[in-house]
Amino acid sequence: MDTNHERPDPKQTALTRSRYDRVAPFYDLMTLCNDFLYRHWRKWLWQQMPNHGRIVEVGIGTGKSIPFHPRDAEVVGIDLSPKMLARAQKVKRKLGAHTKLVLDDVQALDLPDESVDATVATFVFCSVPDPVLGFGELRRVLRPGGRVYLLEHMRAANEFIGRLMDFINPLVVTTLGFNINRRTLENIERAGLHIDWTRDVGLGGILKIIVARSPT
Prior knowledge:
Number of helices: 7
Helix content: 25-40%
Largest sheet: 7 strands, mixed
Number of strands: 7
Distance between the termini: 14 Å
Radius of gyration: 16 Å
Strand order of the largest sheet: 3-2-1-4-5-7-6
CATH class: Alpha Beta
Strand content: 15-25%
CATH superfamily: Vaccinia Virus protein VP39
Oligomer: single chain
Structural class: alpha/beta
CATH topology: Rossmann fold
Order of helices and strands: HHHEEHEEHEHHEE
């Protein structure tokens, strides 16, 4: 699947940026419960990373993962929101981390083809306006066989719960800015990535760790 001809919707991208700029000052407070429940899985995910090469963290946000970044790797943290990045910058300075912070859009990455060894994202692709386009960009920038590591929530496999999530999703998007009914596994495969394995880590399979890879 060639995604090079596709472009992000500028209106949707601007809307997503404005939402996260707006909540940036109190984002950490909003996600306290999430952090308490799933911080160990975020840490565990980073422990699976290679400790060398170039790693891109998509949607670094306020820098919650910076404490787990491998010191001997070149870690680049991107985010669509300048105000979220400004908060991540404070975490970086406090920890003395070497992470490079960049304003960028996963739907149109400012990175060369096959220039990245691994990518990682935690609770991000629920907010990307066009997730298939975003996953296609990860496929483009990854070296052959490079891996995508994800901690994501998605639409329930149970059809009743899934339909309920579909029904309330518009309200959640309007109020909180993220989708609760994304078919993330399907989106990954539509982008041309291969799923190596998944692991259910909560909410009856709604929350998953996913490891995928680019074609060799």
